[in-house]
Input
Amino acid sequence: METTGRGRLAVGERLPAVSLAPVAGRPVELRRTAHESSVLVFVHPDCDDCRAYVERLEGWADRLAAWGGRVLVVAADHSQARSLAPAVDSTVLCDADGRARGGAGLSPRGAAVVVSDKFGIVYRVELAGAHHEFLDPGELLEEIRYMGSQCPECGVPDDPLSGEEAWHRGGE
Output
């Protein structure tokens, strides 16, 4: 996987300060994700394997959302964004000018999964290998669950599936 001369986005850095237009709705600023952790999926243009991975993630969307996570699919151009949008419920963003990919240190045709917390701090970067070895959705869920349970005072319950706060269960 090629990266730009800037170097790949690294763990601990902030997401690029760019706004991307979704297929429908208002622009999304990558660093400001409404107090949600993000799974950014940069997909190859016109790639069946990338599309299959994004569709597979859709089955995990509710579990990710339960822990304050969301999937943002970053398409390389408008036609790819429009073709992906009907297939997934996740927000599909268009990076036609390549600023998000470039800011992440990816080549214009680069594919990767980037996991960030609600402040836009990167926790994990995985490039798509030759055989599209993207992160397993279960691993993504564990990452989002970890981030979601770090700050219960901010309104994220320690166990969102049961709705109970850890302090509430303290006597058990």
